[in-house]
Amino acid sequence: MSLSQAAAVGAAAPSSSARSATGSLAAETLAESVERVVVSPVFRTGPWDAQRMAQQRTVHQAHILLVSESDVCRSVLAAAALRQLLAEAGLAEAVVVDTCGTRPYNLGEEPEPNALVAAEALGLLQPHSAAASSSGGSGGSEAQQAGGSPPQPHRARLFTAAEDMVGADLVLVMDKYTAGDVMREVSSFDLVNRSQPLTYKVRRLGEFCDWAPPQPPPGAGAAAAAAAAAAAPPPEYGSEGDELDIEDPLYGNVGGDDEARAVLRTARAILRCCQGLVAFLSHLRDQQSQLHQAQLSAGSGGEVGAAQDPAAAAMTTLGPALRAHLTDMAPAAWLAPPMLSPRVDREQLPDF
């Protein structure tokens, strides 16, 4: 290389200080670019009504929410059947019943005429809304009914996950479609707050069909009877496959006699499921009564008044008992879309 060429190369090459300055500038530019792209983590409050969640934990009554697609047929029939059966079982003041729908098809509308006809045919109370009940359960619609106040006319309302999931102890859906609608919104809550899951509350009403506690062997003593009652297996989600679904009788029907018959068949199925549900709640009440009786016998019941009456004490603890029982139940399986849900367990099929 000639002297002139070396001088030209030396003039073109940057000095070490220049290279350092350029590298520092590039690093700063890269850092600024990353800051623009990367979102800094921000801790926010959960998407649910935290105040109502805290209040619900202190409520003595059990709050049951019945969910259908539009809140004008199945949920209305279920509410009518459940309220009447609860009254017959002496649980009307211990349980608050509410309804809603997952789709905004019939917001503000009254029940379907065929639903009212079916309710009357089965001798059920006329359907009405419990939406006016307070979040804490005191002064709710059930208490108002016990006091003789006229029921409010039913108006379809939309499911609101942020309020309904924390305000209800048990959320009973009619089929996999409504379960999917509810789970789609609620599952994100459990991802945010894993210590207090909410999806375990979601069950299908059909799970309680023909529910009954196991009976002790003939001649068994009181201790064996109490042990058998305590060991009663709770309903498990999806344990009977598609038979647990209560199908929408309005789907595919456009009125007329066929629709009326379909609604009546659905009403009979709902009544049967509600009978099992009330048997389940009565079983919880009896368990609480036995627990309080045992505490009194052991001398641990120091309070006076209702606390000295096991039956009365059981009525005031039904809500906490239901919440505790559901928490101990097997978690609800994540729901796949109905068309993708296998009807058989492929792993159990024999090899040919």
Under CATH at level 1, the class of the domain at 50-230 and 240-284 stands as: Alpha Beta
* N-to-C SSE string, H for helix and E for strand: HHHEHEHHHEHEHHHH
Low-pLDDT residue spans: 34-43, 129-150, 236-241, 301-307, 334-342
Percentage of residues in strands: 5-15%
Our Rg estimate from Cα atoms comes to 30 Å
Distance between the termini: 83 Å
Q: Identify the CATH architecture of the domain at 50-230 and 240-284.
A: 3-Layer(aba) Sandwich
Question: What is this entry, summarized?
Answer:
The chain is mostly helical and 352 residues long.
Provide an overview of this structure.
With 352 residues, the protein is mainly alpha-helical. The protein has a domain at 50-230 and 240-284: Rossmann fold, CATH 3.40.50.2300. The protein has helices spanning 3-12, 16-37, 50-56, 74-88, 113-121, 141-146, 161-167, 176-192, 222-230, 256-297, 310-316, 318-328, and strands spanning 62-68, 95-101, 170-173, 202-204. It has a four-stranded parallel beta sheet, with helices on both faces. Helix 5 packs across helix 10 (256-297) and helix 10 (256-297) packs across helix 11. The protein is globular, with a radius of gyration of 30 Å. The N and C termini lie far apart (83 Å). Mean pLDDT is 73; it is low at 34-43, 129-150, 236-241, 301-307 and 334-342. Residues 129-149, 220-231 have a biased composition (Low complexity).
